[in-house]
From TrEMBL, chain A:
Major localisation: membrane
EC number of this enzyme: 1.6.5.-
Transmembrane residue ranges: 73-91, 103-122, 128-145, 157-180, 200-221, 233-254, 266-287, 294-313, 325-343, 364-385, 397-420, 441-458
Protein name: NADH-quinone oxidoreductase subunit M
Example GO biological process: ATP synthesis coupled electron transport
Entry GO MF terms: NADH dehydrogenase (ubiquinone) activity; NADH dehydrogenase activity; ubiquinone binding
This protein's record includes keyword RNA-binding: no
GO cellular component, one term: membrane
Similarity section: Belongs to the complex I subunit 4 family.
InterPro entries documented for this protein: NADH_Q_OxRdtase_chainM/4 (IPR010227), NADH_UbQ_OxRdtase (IPR003918), ND/Mrp_TM (IPR001750)
From TrEMBL, chain B:
Localisation per UniProt entry: Cell membrane; Endomembrane system; Membrane
Alphabetical list of Pfam families matching this protein: Proton_antipo_M
NADH:quinone oxidoreductase/Mrp antiporter transmembrane domain residues: 113-403
GO function terms (MF aspect): NADH dehydrogenase (quinone) (non-electrogenic) activity; NADH dehydrogenase (ubiquinone) activity; quinone binding
Predominant location: membrane
Organism of origin: Myroides albus
Name recorded for this polypeptide: NADH-quinone oxidoreductase subunit N
HAMAP family: NDH1_NuoN_1
Transmembrane region(s): 27-49, 61-79, 99-132, 148-169, 189-213, 225-245, 257-278, 285-305, 311-332, 353-376, 388-408, 435-458
Function: NDH-1 shuttles electrons from NADH, via FMN and iron-sulfur (Fe-S) centers, to quinones in the respiratory chain. The immediate electron acceptor for the enzyme in this species is believed to be a menaquinone. Couples the redox reaction to proton translocation (for every two electrons transferred, four hydrogen ions are translocated across the cytoplasmic membrane), and thus conserves the redox energy in a proton gradient.
Catalytic activity annotation: a quinone + NADH + 5 H(+)(in) = a quinol + NAD(+) + 4 H(+)(out)
InterPro entries for this protein: NADH-Q_OxRdtase_suN/2, ND/Mrp_TM
Binding partners and assembly: NDH-1 is composed of 14 different subunits. Subunits NuoA, H, J, K, L, M, N constitute the membrane sector of the complex.
C-alpha cells in the first residue's frame, strides 16, 4: 500500500461526507476517519517491515515540481497523530446540534486531508500547497460555526487568517529562492543545497516567520487565545491538537536541515524566545477566567517548550520534541473535550462559575485528573517522556535553559491544580452535573489509555521516529 | 487572420439578424460561432504566418492570447441575455459591439505594424466608449463614458504621437524593420521619447499608477457587464500588448526602463490594494483590485524573454476569476441602485452556489493554492527572483496579504448569518449566470491543478 491511498481516503471522505446529506454526515466522516486510521497503522507496519510507502511523480515539468510524498518514520508518526485524532474529534461532536452538518464534517475531513498531506509532502511546493489548504477549512469552521456573535469572532478569525497567511507567503518566497539556487523543490535536493551562511540566514528567517506564527512562538502568539476561544470546540481541537504541530514538524523536517548553519547561529535567540513563551504562557494562564483561553495559554507554554526542544539541534531534544508533539496532541484534545463536557452541562466556560463537580461526577473527575497530570508531565504519562527528553536536550546546550524551561513543570502543576481545584473540587455544586455518558467515556477513556500506555511503553513510537531524526541530525553536522 | 475575419463576419451577421428580425437567435449564434472560432484558433496555435506585408502576424503569443480573448468574450456574451433583459431590442448592437471589441483586441496582440496596432487600439477603445455609455438613462453611465472618452482619447493621442516619433527615428511602421534599425546603431533621442510615450499611453489603458485615476469612476459608472469586460478582457489585452510592444521596441532594455517598470509595478499594486481596503462598493473594490493585479502582471515586463508563459498564465487566472466574480456581482445587484458590499450579506444562505463561486474567485485572486491565482503569482515571483528582483517580490508578497484582507472581508459578509438587514429570501439566479459562474470556477481549478496545460503552449 502506499500513502496516496491514505490521502485519497481522506479526500474521498470529505466529498462523501458532503454528498451524504445532513443526517448521516457525522457517521460517514467517522467511518472514513477510522478507515484512514487503520490505513495509517498498516502503513506503519509496512514501514517497520522495511517497505517504502513513498510516492513520486512529476506534476509540472517547468518549473520542476513533483508530487512527492515521503513516508519515513517521522512523517508517519505525525500522520498517525492526525488520523488517530480525526475520528476522536469527529466522535466528540456526536449529538451536538450542528447546522449544515454535512459541510461542517466535510471541512473537518478536508482539513485532515490537507494536514496529512503537509506531513507527508517531500516537495517544497506541494508542501506549501497542503500547508495553505489546511488553512481554508479551519477558517470557515471557525467563522461559520464559532462561538460568540459573528461581529466579535470575525475579527479574531480574520486576524488569525491574515497572520498565518502572511507568514507562509514569506516561506513561499524562501522556497522560490531555494528553487532558483537548486532547480528543484525536492526535499532531498534542498537538503543538499549548500547555501552560503548569509543565504541560509535569509531563508531561515523567511521560514521562521511562517513557523513562528503557526506554532506560535512568543511574540507571534497574539492570534492564538482569541482564535481558540472563538472557534467551535472541534475547530479548537483541530488547531491545538494537530495544526500547530505542522509548524513544529516543519521546523524539524524543512527548516533546520536546509539551513543548518543559520539555525546554529540564531539558536540562542530562538531558545530564549521559546522559553519566554513557556514562562509567559504559564503566567498568563493563571489569570484566565475562560477555560478555553486557559487551555490556550497552557498550550502556548507547552508548545514553547517543544519549539525549544526542536531548536536545540540535538538528537535528544528533537526526539523529545516529536514525542511531546504527539503527547500534547492527545492531551490537549482531551482537555478541550473536558471543557466542552462542562459547557454542555453548565452552559458556561467561566472557571469561576464551576466548582464542586467531583462529587457529582466521579468518573469524569478521575479522567480529568489523569489528563491534567499528563498535561503537567507527571512520570508515567506520555508527556513526561517528551518533556524529559527535551529538557535533557536543552541541558546539553546550556544547563540554564533546562532549568528555566523546566519551570514549565512547576508552573504547570501550579496553574493546572489551581484550575482543577476551582472547577472540580469544593462544595457540591447546586447545579446538577450528570456523569459521563457512554460516548464521552469512550473518547476520554481512549485518550487516557493512549496517554498512560505510551507513558509506560513509548518504545514503538521512539523507534519509529529515531532513524529519521538521526538522518536529519546528520545534515546539521 | 482567419480568426479575425471570422469574428468580423460574425459581427456583421449579428447585425443582419437584427434586420431580418431574428433577434432571438443572436446570442446562441454568436456563442456557437465563437466556440467554433476558438476551436479553430486553438488548433492552429502553433501556426506562424504573416499577412498583408507583415501587417498582421500570428505567432504563439498572439494566438494564445487571442484564444483567451475569444473564451472571455464567449462568457461575456453568454451573460448578455439576462443582463440586457430590459433592453432586449438592442441586443444585437451590444453583441456586435462586443465582437468588434474582440477584433480590436486580437489586432492589438497580433500586429506586425504600428499602424495595425493603433487601429486595434482604436477599435477597442471606441467600442468601449460606446458600451460604457450604453445605459443612457443613467447619469453615472454617461459620466463614465465621457470621462473614459476624454482621457482615453488623450491617451490614444499620446500613443499616436509616440508612434510618429518612432517613425521619425526609424522611417518605418513595420515592427521587423524597426527591430533591424534599432539593433544597428545609435538612434536619435526622439526614438526613446516615442517609445516612452507609447508605453505611457498603454499604462493608461491598463490603469497603472499614476495613470489610474479614471478607472474607479469609470468602472463604477459603466453597466456592470461592461465593467466586467473592461476589467478582464480589456485589461488583459492592454497588458499583453504592452508586453509585446516592450518586447519589440526595447530589444536592449536600458537600465532606467527596468527601474521605472519596477517602481510603477510596485506603486500600482500597492496603491491599488490600499485603496481597495476602504471601498464599500463592490465594483470599486474590484476596480482597485484589478489595478493591483495589473501591477502584478507588470512584473512580467522585467523579464521580457522568459515571461510570456507566466504572463499568459496569470492573465488567464485573473480574467477567469474576474468573470466569475462579476457574474456573481451581476446576479446579486440586479435591479439595485448601487453595488454595496453589504448587499452580499447572507448570500451564503440565499444562494450558496453563487457564494461558493464568488469565494473561490476571490480566493484565487488572493493567491490561495490549488486555485489558479496562486500559481500565477508563484510563476511571476519565481521568475522575478531568478532575475534578482527581490524587492519587487517582497512587495508582491506584502500586497498579497493586504489583498487577502479585503477579499476575506467580502467572503465574511457573504456568510454573515445574523444580519437583520439581510434579505432572507432565496435569490433566484438565471441559468446562464450559473453556468458561466460554475464553468469559470471549474476552469480556474483545472488550470490550478495542471498549470502545464497553459505553460506548455509556449514551449
Amino acid at each position: 500500500m502506499n500513502v496516496t491511498i491514505l490521502l485519497l481516503t481522506l479526500l474521498v471522505g470529505a466529498i462523501a461526507t458532503y454528498i451524504s446529506g445532513k443526517k448521516p454526515a457525522a457517521k460517514v466522516a467517522l467511518l472514513f476517519g477510522l478507515v484512514a486510521f487503520v490505513e495509517t497503522i498498516v502503513l506503519i507496519c509496512q514501514h517497520n517491515a522495511g517497505t517504502d510507502a513513498g510516492y513520486m511523480t512529476q506534476w509540472i515539468s517547468n518549473p520542476n515540481i513533483h508530487i512527492a510524498l515521503k513516508a519515513d518514520g517521522l512523517a508517519l508518526a505525525l500522520t498517525l497523530l492526525t488520523t488517530a485524532l480525526t475520528p476522536i474529534i469527529i466522535f466528540s461532536s456526536f449529538g451536538d446540534h450542528i447546522e449544515k452538518s454535512n459541510i461542517f464534517y466535510s471541512l473537518v475531513m478536508f482539513m485532515s486531508f490537507a494536514m496529512t498531506g503537509t506531513f507527508l509532502a517531500a516537495d517544497g511546493l506541494l508542501y506549501y500547497v497542503f500547508w495553505e489548504l489546511s488553512l481554508l477549512p479551519i477558517y470557515f469552521i471557525a467563522l461559520l460555526w464559532g462561538n460568540d456573535t459573528f461581529e466579535v469572532r470575525k475579527k479574531a478569525i480574520l486576524k488569525f487568517f491574515i497572520y498565518t497567511f502572511a507568514g507562509s507567503l514569506f516561506m513561499l518566497v524562501g522556497f522560490i529562492y531555494l528553487y532558483s539556487k537548486t532547480g528543484s523543490f525536492l526535499l532531498q535536493d534542498l537538503y543538499n543545497a549548500r547555501l552560503t551562511g548569509t543565504e541560509q540566514y535569509w531563508v531561515f528567517l523567511a521560514f521562521f516567520l511562517a513557523y513562528a506564527i503557526k506554532i506560535p512562538v512568543f511574540p507571534f502568539h497574539t492570534w492564538q487565545a482569541s482564535t481558540y476561544e472563538k472557534a467551535p470546540t472541534v475547530g479548537t481541537m483541530l488547531l491545538a491538537g494537530i495544526m500547530l504541530k505542522m509548524g513544529l514538524y516543519s521546523v524539524i523536517r524543512w527548516q533546520i536541515p536546509i539551513t543548518p548553519i543559520a539555525a546554529k547561529e540564531v539558536m540562542p535567540t530562538i531558545l530564549v524566545l521559546s522559553i519566554i513563551g513557556v514562562v509567559y504562557g504559564s503566567i498568563v494562564a493563571l489569570k484566565q477566567a475562560n477555560i478555553k483561553r486557559f487551555f490556550a495559554y497552557s498550550s502556548l507554554a507547552h508548545v514553547g517548550l517543544i519549539a525549544a526542544g526542536a531548536y536545540t539541534l540535538t538528537l535528544d531534544g528533537m526526539k523529545g520534541a516529536v514525542l511531546q508533539m504527539i503527547a500534547h496532541g492527545f492531551v490537549i484534545v482531551g482537555l478541550f473535550f473536558v471543557g466542552e463536557i462542562i459547557y454542555r452541562r453548565y452552559q458556561t466556560r467561566m472557571i469561576g462559575e464551576m466548582g464542586g463537580i467531583r462529587q457529582q461526577a466521579p468518573k469524569f473527575a478521575s479522567i480529568f485528573m489523569i489528563l491534567m497530570f499528563a498535561s503537567i508531565g507527571l512520570p508515567g504519562t506520555f508527556s513526561f517522556i517528551g518533556e524529559f527528553n527535551i529538557l535533557y536536550g536543552l541541558s546539553q546546550i546550556n544547563l540554564w535553559y533546562a532549568v528555566i524551561g523546566g519551570t514549565t513543570l512547576i508552573f504547570g502543576a501550579f496553574y493546572m491544580l489551581r484550575m482543577f481545584q476551582k472547577a472540580m473540587l469544593g462544595e457540591t455544586n447546586a447545579k446538577p452535573f450528570a456523569d459521563l455518558n457512554t460516548k464521552e467515556s469512550i473518547i476520554l477513556g481512549v485518550l487516557a489509555i493512549v496517554i498512560i500506555f505510551l507513558g509506560i511503553y513509548p518504545k514503538p513510537l521512539a523507534d519509529l521516529i529515531t532513524p529519521s531524526l538521526v538522518e536529519i541530525v546528520s545534515y546539521i553536522k | 487572420m482567419n480568426t479575425l475575419i471570422a469574428i468580423g463576419v460574425l459581427a456583421v451577421l449579428v447585425l443582419i439578424a437584427e434586420i431580418i428580425n431574428l433577434r432571438k437567435l443572436v446570442i446562441p449564434m454568436t456563442i456557437i460561432g465563437l466556440v467554433g472560432i476558438l476551436g479553430y484558433t486553438v488548433c492552429n496555435i502553433d501556426v506562424e504566418v504573416s499577412y498583408y506585408n507583415n501587417m498582421f502576424i500570428t505567432k504563439k503569443f498572439s494566438n494564445a492570447f487571442s484564444s483567451l480573448f475569444i473564451a472571455l468574450t464567449i462568457f461575456l456574451v453568454a451573460l448578455s441575455k439576462d443582463f440586457y433583459q430590459k433592453e432586449f431590442s438592442k441586443i444585437s448592437d451590444y453583441i456586435s459591439l462586443k465582437l468588434f471589441l474582440l477584433m480590436g483586441a486580437i489586432c492589438m496582440v497580433s500586429f506586425g505594424n504600428m499602424a495595425m496596432f493603433f487601429l486595434g487600439l482604436e477599435i477597442l477603445s471606441i467600442t468601449l466608449y460606446i458600451l460604457c455609455g450604453s445605459d443612457r438613462a443613467n447619469i453615472k453611465s454617461n459620466e463614465a463614458a465621457m470621462k473614459y472618452f476624454l482621457l482615453g482619447s488623450f491617451a490614444s493621442g499620446i500613443v499616436l504621437f509616440g508612434i510618429a516619433l518612432v517613425y521619425g527615428a526609424t522611417a518605418s511602421f513595420d515592427i521587423s524593420e524597426i527591430i533591424t534599425i534599432t539593433s544597428q546603431g545609435t538612434l536619435p533621442i526622439w526614438y526613446s521619447l516615442g517609445v516612452v510615450m507609447i508605453i505611457i499611453g498603454m499604462l493608461f489603458k491598463i490603469a497603472a499608477v499614476p495613470f489610474h485615476f479614471w478607472a474607479p469612476d469609470v468602472y463604477q459608472g459603466a453597466p456592470t457587464l461592461t465593467t466586467a469586460m473592461m476589467s478582464t478582457l480589456v485589461k488583459v489585452t492592454a497588458v499583453a500588448t504592452l508586453f509585446k510592444l516592450s518586447f519589440h521596441l526595447l530589444r536592449q532594455m536600458p537600465e532606467g526602463y527596468i527601474t521605472a517598470i519596477v517602481v510603477i509595478a510596485i506603486l500600482t499594486m500597492t496603491v491599488g490594494n490600499i485603496m481597495a481596503l476602504r471601498q464599500e462598493n463592490m465594483k470599486r473594490l474590484l476596480a482597485y483590485s484589478g489595478i493591483s493585479h495589473a501591477g502584478f502582471m507588470m512584473m512580467a515586463l522585467t523579464a521580457l524573454n522568459t515571461s510570456a508563459a507566466n504572463l499568459f498564465y496569470y492573465a488567464t487566472a485573473y480574467a477567469i476569476a474576474g468573470i466569475a466574480a462579476f457574474t456573481v456581482l451581476m446576479a446579486v445587484t440586479k435591479g439595485k441602485e448601487n453595488q454595496l458590499i453589504q448587499s452580499f450579506s447572507g448570500l451564503g444562505k440565499r444562494n450558496p452556489l453563487m457564494a461558493i463561486v464568488l469565494s473561490i474567485a476571490l480566493l484565487s485572486m488572493g493567491g490561495i493554492p490549488i486555485f489558479a491565482g496562486f500559481f500565477g503569482k508563484f510563476f511571476l515571483f519565481s521568475e522575478a527572483i531568478s532575475k534578482g528582483f527581490i524587492t519587487l517580490v517582497i512587495f508582491g508578497v506584502i500586497n498579497s496579504f493586504i489583498s487577502i484582507y479585503y477579499y476575506l472581508k467580502v467572503i465574511i459578509v457573504m456568510f454573515t448569518n445574523n444580519d437583520e438587514t439581510a434579505e432572507e429570501t432565496a435569490l433566484s439566479i438565471p441559468l446562464s449566470y450559473k453556468i458561466v459562474g460554475v464553468l469559470a470556477v471549474a476552469i480556474n481549478i483545472i488550470i490550478g491543478l495542471c498549470p502545464s496545460i497553459l505553460l506548455n503552449i509556449f514551449q
